[in-house]
């Protein structure tokens, strides 16, 4: 298992060596996902809460967390990551035991991380361990079963998130639906919230249609899953 996780980590380092987060922030689809994430952190944590941003990249999201009145710790496996954070930084591998004391954090953000991890149960257990009682994990991940992929599957086509030949989706080795994610969170000791989502997307050969209204109304049909989970 350790060897498989090391290979997964190395593949993700190669695949995400560019300025991925900055590109996400320019895309309304990902910006909506991030806005939901920041809202859930601010709604569930008091000002000044110590919050680890796992997979922080260049630190752009950590800086936005600080803008919501929280105290971020930018965490990434890359040596020179977190350069834009302006906050404490820790080098770590989210596929391993996290280098924090038990009960030392108020919040954890795992944004677009769990789908890349060989052992997601370990990640969730570690997030639970490092949080204080009443602490909150906010987790986002691509939805395995958005509206269009549900219909694609009925026609015998694989969901988009399990395409092993896609340029970057081949790095998504653990896809989730909301019920599966909620089950994993409960098994780790969390109480998960209802999901939020950014947009329901419908792609044709010529056009792409996106609806934020539909994602608010039916979040389990949206492209991303955004969930807050509290440690009792």
Walk me through what this model shows.
Helix 5 links the parallel strand 4 and strand 5 (about 130-140). This protein has a single domain, classed as 3-Layer(aba) Sandwich (Rossmann fold), CATH 3.40.50. The protein has a seven-stranded mixed beta sheet with strand order 3-2-1-4-5-9-6, sandwiched between helices. It has a two-stranded antiparallel ribbon with strand order 7-8. The longest helix has 17 residues, at about 30-45. The chain has eight helices and nine strands. The model has no long low-confidence stretch (mean pLDDT about 90). It is an alpha/beta fold.
Flag low-confidence runs.
none
Please state the average pLDDT score: 89
Q: Tell me the total number of β-strands.
A: 9
Task: Give the overall silhouette.
Answer: globular
Order of helices and strands: HHHEHEEEHEHHEEEHE
**Strand-residue fraction?**
15-25%
Spatial sequence of strands, sheet with the most strands = 3-2-1-4-5-9-6
Instruction: Give helix % range.
Output: 25-40%
Which oligomerization state do the chains in this entry correspond to? single chain
InterPro entries: Methyltransf_11, SAM-dependent_MTases_sf
GO molecular function: S-adenosylmethionine-dependent methyltransferase activity
Domain Methyltransferase type: 53-139
Pfam families: Methyltransf_11
């Amino acid at each position: 298992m350790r060897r498989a996780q090391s290979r997964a980590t190395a593949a993700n380092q190669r695949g995400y060596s560019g300025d991925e987060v900055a590109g996400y922030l320019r895309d309304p689809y990902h910006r909506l996902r991030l806005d939901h994430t920041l809202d859930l952190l601010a709604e569930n944590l008091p000002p000044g809460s110590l919050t680890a941003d796992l997979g922080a990249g260049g630190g752009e999201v950590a800086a936005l967390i600080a803008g919501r009145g929280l105290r971020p710790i930018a965490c990434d496996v890359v040596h020179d990551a977190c350069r834009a954070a302006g906050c404490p930084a820790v080098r770590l591998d989210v596929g391993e035991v996290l280098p924090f004391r038990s009960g030392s954090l108020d919040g954890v953000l795992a944004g677009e991380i769990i789908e890349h991890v060989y052992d997601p149960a370990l990640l969730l257990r570690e997030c639970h361990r490092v949080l204080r009682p009443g602490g909150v994990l906010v987790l986002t991940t691509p939805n395995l079963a958005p509206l269009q992929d549900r219909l694609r599957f009925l026609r015998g086509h694989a969901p988009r998130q399990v395409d092993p030949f896609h340029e970057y989706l081949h790095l998504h080795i653990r896809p989730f639906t909301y019920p599966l994610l909620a089950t994993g969170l409960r098994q780790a000791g969390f109480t998960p919230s209802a999901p939020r989502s950014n947009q329901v997307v419908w792609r044709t050969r010529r056009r792409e249609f996106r609806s934020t209204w539909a994602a608010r109304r039916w979040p389990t049909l949206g492209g991303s899953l955004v969930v807050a989970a509290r440690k009792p």
